[in-house]
Amino acid sequence: MTPEKLVELAKEAMTHAYAPYSGYKVGAALLCADGTVYQGCNIENSAYSPTNCAERTAFFKAVYDGHRDFSAIAICGGKDGVITGAFPPCGVCRQVMREFCKPDFLVYIINAEGYETQTLADLLPHSFSL
Ligand code: THU
Questions:
Q1: If you measure from the C-alpha of residue 53 to the centroid of ligand 1, how many angstroms do you get, rounded to a whole number?
Q2: Whole-angstrom Cα distance, residue 51 to residue 67?
Q3: What is the pTM of this model?
């Protein structure tokens, strides 16, 4: 699985978004250590706080299926599904990544031109875990 292919899968996942309130469609493609990929989208709610981000949708699908080892995630988002810039993961999603991933877990943040690569350690320094 190349980063470029994971990026394409994140873009495809974005088309599944349920985002009638914000209009921001978000997609994620999570690469497991065994090569399996889980896609996720944001799923909004009229009460707002039950909204689930795309990244967590992908993680929760994968963990339910028994996966615990992850290599990378690609993320994209934009108003009405149009990518105009980077859509970095929110703090809650970074903490969910921290639950399951090592500091060198790769995060491909997609932008209009391509993608930038970060590590989880870059995105969540001095992190909390038990
Ligand atoms: N969103 C994500 O899916 N992932 C993030 O990391 C940040 C925010 C979603 C939640 C909401 O549906 C929309 O983007 C606007 O905040």
A1: 5
A2: 23
A3: 0.97
